[in-house]
Design goal:
Structural class: alpha/beta
Shape: globular
Order of helices and strands: EHEEHEEEHEHE
Helix content: 10-25%
Radius of gyration: 15 Å
Largest sheet: 4 strands, parallel
């Protein structure tokens, strides 16, 4: 089933999704890779504020490449999610509602997704996000 969801979204929306749904997300989606996750995790441990509110939000595990001339950003493809597995359960417990990446997740992450009624959106590697220019 095709689903169109505005981010941030609530737990009820997450629970309505089924494996195999084709999901179109609109709104603000944050990007962060392993170094950013480590900094957020360390800030949490010190009781410091995070750079954005995790509650009901989505993080895209994006591996950017340099922008071509005249473009604001280059390819923005997904990166391997398992590099964030060490930090994901703590972020999910703080209210993160979704993650976009590629590849399998560790048991601890899968358990945290279930515990928090969150979603792991599996992205297709190698697909470029952007507008077609004809």
């Amino acid at each position: 089933m095709d689903r169109h969801i505005a981010v941030p979204y609530d737990e009820k929306t997450a629970r309505e999704l089924k494996s195999g749904d084709l999901v179109y997300l609109t709104g603000t989606i944050y990007t962060a890779r392993d170094a950013a996750h480590k900094r957020m995790y360390e800030a949490m441990e010190k009781g410091q504020a995070l750079p954005f509110d995790l509650k009901n939000n989505v993080i895209y595990y994006m591996g950017p490449s340099p922008a071509r001339e005249g473009r604001p950003i280059g390819s923005a493809g997904p990166t391997t999610a398992s590099r964030m597995d060490k930090y994901a359960p703590a972020l999910l417990d703080l209210g993160l509602n979704g993650m976009i990446g590629k590849g399998k997740r560790k048991a601890e992450v899968r358990e945290a997704v279930i515990r928090n009624n969150a979603v792991y959106f599996a992205a297709i590697g190698g697909a470029e996000i952007g507008r077609a220019h004809v």
